[in-house]
Amino acid sequence: MKFVSWNVNGIRAVAGKGLLDIISNFNADFFCLQETKAQVDQVQEVLKGMDNVFVYANEAEKKGYSGVAIIAKKEAKSMTLGIGMEGHDDEGRIVTLEYDDFYLVNGYIPNSGDGLKRLDYRAEWDLALKNYLSELRKAKPVIMTGDFNVAHQPIDLARPQSNYNKTSGYTQVEIDGMSAILASGFTDSFRYLHPEKVLYSFWSVRFGARAKNVGWRLDYFLVDDQIKDKITGADIHNEIMGSDHCPVSVEIAL
Questions:
Q1: Out of 56, 99, 103, 108, which one is annotated catalytic?
Q2: Is 108 tagged catalytic?
Q3: Three-state secondary structure along the chain?
Q4: Could you give all domains of the chain from N- to C-terminal order, each with its CATH number?
Q5: pLDDT, tens digit, for every residue of 89-131?
């Protein structure tokens, strides 16, 4: 099965940049979107031209903010919005689909913000997410994807030294949060297959960062350790434009 994930930085904005063609060309079983910046009905409207798919979406209470969606070829047994934690679910950041053999979780993890003003909240969020995933794993394996807003290792960003503990996305608090999720029973699929490969999935829109490839790897597929031996492919598609992120993908022999 092929899974693709992309932070589109506004589904309505990227709709005019070939979104439907990009989705179609991947021919994935599941195409996960983050930062749709749209309500559920607006997501459905953008994707209405797609045939034979099911669209599952979550929205923020604040319009034009956050939001996630999954485009699936197969209908889910059930859908869950959020992680069941009061105070964490009003920003439309998580949608979970249940299938016979696995759960698929699509998430847009909070950014710690300018000046790291939201770092304490981010730490709470990471812990709540880890606990949520741990509960799901008791029933069946979990595949989690999304924009995690953290570069986990120095290899995952172009300038680790100058950003460490200064810039949102590369503080020890955020690194530890990701490490704890991985230690709870998950494998970073890209790093599992490509331990030394340097590829990024996000570039700042400032200072020509993408042209210079001064980037960050913020987008992941975390695959349950119970099925990590079924990972057959993992890639970062940095040739695809339209957002400040690019799509990432994983293939799993399920």
A1: 108
A2: yes
A3: CEEEEEECCCHHHHHCCCHHHHHHHHCCCEEEEECCCCCHHHHHHHCCCCCCCEEEEECCCCCCCCCEEEEECCCCCEEEECCCCCCCCCCCCEEEEECCCCEEEEEECCCCCHHHCCHHHHHHHHHHHHHHHHHHHCCCCEEEEEECCCCCCHHHECCHHHHCCCCCCCCHHHHHHHHHHHHCCEEEHHHHHCCCCCCCCEECCCCCHHHHCCEECCEEEEEEHHHHHHEEEEEECCCCCCCCECCEEEEECC
A4: 2-252 (3.60.10.10)
A5: 999 999 999 999 999 999 999 999 999 999 999 999 999 999 9
Across all residues in the chain, what is the average pLDDT? 97
Query: In terms of pTM, does the model score above 0.90?
Result: yes
Clarify whether 200 is annotated catalytic. Answer: no
pLDDT value, residue 94: 98
In whole angstroms, give the CA distance from residue 57 to residue 243.
19
C-alpha 99/C-alpha 204 separation (Å) is 36
Catalytic residue among 56, 126, 147, 170: 147
C-alpha 196, offset from chain centre? 21
- Confidence tier at 86 by pLDDT (50, 70, 90): confident
